[in-house]
Design brief:
By secondary structure, the chain is α+β, with helices and mostly antiparallel strands. The chain contains one helix and three strands; from the N terminus they run βββα. The chain has a three-stranded antiparallel sheet, with helices on one face. Strand 1 and strand 2 form a beta hairpin. The protein starts with a strand and ends in a 7-residue tail after the last helix.
């Protein structure tokens, strides 16, 4: 299956912006992240950087979330 990246943003009605980021494998969403940022400029930067950072962010999240806290 092909891996696809989605990044977009919209104003959320309170003057901030919601940035929506996804990693898809075929039709399956394997990671979805929504961030609230105070400016459209920050939203654009995040969307632009997503394509270069998605794998690192996914790997970090999985490593941290699957970590056995009993071995720390």
């Amino acid at each position: 299956d092909e891996v696809g990246l989605i990044s977009d943003y919209q104003e959320n009605g309170s003057g901030e912006y919601n940035v929506n980021l996804e990693i898809r494998e075929g039709r399956d969403v394997i990671m979805k992240l929504t961030l609230s940022v105070p400016s459209e400029e920050q939203a654009k930067i995040i969307c632009s950087n997503w394509k270069d950072s998605d794998q690192k962010i996914y790997e970090f999240a999985m490593k941290e979330l699957l970590r056995d806290k009993g071995t720390d």
